[in-house]
Specification:
411 residues, alpha/beta, Aspartate Aminotransferase, domain 1, Aspartate Aminotransferase, domain 2, 2 domains, 7-stranded mixed β-sheet, 41% helix, 15% strand
Length: 411
């Protein structure tokens, strides 16, 4: 089940980076996917979890309590996006957004069907789709000029075929931070309706926005519920990844199937997750205060990281208005992103090669600014020094030698 990303299998790359990190020892981690070492969940959420456990929230969750969470999610969608899904038939709580993604593939995709995946995008999509013996069709985002990404409808249109069943996309896009506009979503939905495929919109980072950026959910469009599945969670902004607080918004038939799968596969949701979700959704003032504080601090970290990246020779940074990752272009160094990332690892800083997110990610890194201030600052110092050493030791762009691992042919 290894996936070919450019010339290097992603699983091999991940293993190699972990191996080098253990050899080096002193490594600053800029590869985090959550707010590792940065902040804790909201205090009122932790208090609700503790209170729930004290009162017995460690057994199967009562149906009525799950219904309260569904109602809170429906109110959240109405407040945020202007439409209210039916809390009884169009919303369900799940053990993480990952379960929603996997369920969508199980429900909609048969062996040999085609799954369109935006490229680059979340690293596990392709592996999940291939595990159901579907055919993956990458749909590249456009980077023009370097550092600026955009969705190209024509790239999507030319890849839709008679066996296309599903389009998988994260919004905001992980790793580029591209936010799909209302016009983008309208065009995607129109094509989905015309060609008969479904759209999975992964919205786990929907509230992490900077510079006054506005978020548009494809599910808010008229008629979208017939063709869309929204996956979201409280893992990213609220730092609750360990509690597996995810949910789906979709039409009645799909929600019924997700609920069936949840019963078969997990035998139910994590009990404290319901306490966490209710605390987030039903304590407006406390939650809003937490969100403002976290986003303000994240934006400071982002500004610092982008300023440092822009000062590094050979690096072209993007300017993320969403998510908490930067995705700088390092193609000027003339080697595969894995090889350059491995070089930096030996200089004491861990960055993710862009090829972990698809073929179009080649020539990029994903860097986390959702880590501690000391990690952001020291990580930038080590990266700058490491890139300078690389330039000095490689005066000309060299093609990386691949003698220590199996070469995978380009597609």
């Amino acid at each position: 089940m290894l996936t070919e990303y450019g010339e290097v299998a992603q699983e091999w790359s991940r293993h190699r980076m972990s191996q080098v990190a253990s050899e080096v020892g002193d490594v600053i981690d800029l590869a985090a996917g959550t707010q590792h070492g940065f902040t804790r969940p909201p205090r009122h959420v932790l208090e609700a979890i503790h209170k729930g456990i004290d009162e017995g929230s460690f057994d199967a969750v009562p149906h009525a309590k799950v219904g309260q969470v569904h109602q809170a999610i429906a109110r959240k969608f109405e407040r945020t996006y202007g439409f209210r899904p039916d809390s009884e038939s169009e919303v369900t709580l799940c053990p993480g957004a990952a379960f929603v993604i996997d369920s969508a593939l199980r429900i909609l995709v048969n062996s040999g069907d085609e799954v369109l995946i935006i490229d680059p995008d979340y690293a596990t999509y392709e592996e999940q789709a291939k595990s159901y013996t579907s055919r993956v069709v990458p749909v590249p985002l456009r980077e023009d000029p370097p550092g600026r990404w955009r969705f190209d409808l024509e790239e999507l249109e030319r890849r839709v075929g008679s066996r296309t069943k599903l389009l998988m996309m994260s919004n905001a896009n992980n790793p580029t931070s591209y936010l799909y506009t209302k016009e983008d979503n309208e065009a995607i939905l129109e094509l989905a309706e015309k060609k008969g495929f479904f759209v999975l919109s992964d919205q786990v980072s929907e509230e992490i926005l900077f510079d006054g950026a506005k978020y548009h959910s494809i599910a808010s469009l008229p008629g979208a519920m017939e063709r869309t599945i929204v996956a979201s969670s409280l893992s990213k902004l609220y730092n609750l990844s360990g509690f597996r607080v995810g949910y789906a918004v979709a039409n009645k038939k799909i929600i019924e199937q997700i609920d069936l799968l949840e019963g078969w596969v997990t035998d139910g949701i994590v009990s404290p997750a319901t306490d966490a979700a209710l605390a987030v959704f039903n304590n407006g003032e406390a939650t809003e205060s937490y969100v403002r504080e976290v986003l303000a601090d994240l934006q400071k970290r982002r500004d610092y990281m982008i300023e440092r990246l822009e000062g590094m020779e050979g690096v072209v940074s993007n300017h993320p208005t969403a998510l908490y990752w930067a995705f700088p272009n390092v193609a000027n160094f003339g080697v595969a992103s894995h090889d350059l990332a491995e070089f930096l690892m030996r200089e004491g800083v861990y960055v993710r090669p862009g090829t972990w997110y698809g073929r179009t990610g080649e020539g990029h890194f994903r860097l986390s600014f959702c880590v501690s201030w000391s990690s952001v600052k020291e990580g930038m110092n080590r990266m700058e020094i490491g890139l300078r050493k690389f330039r000095e030791s490689h005066p000309r762009a060299l093609e990386a030698e691949r003698t220590s691992h199996p070469v995978v042919a380009k597609r």
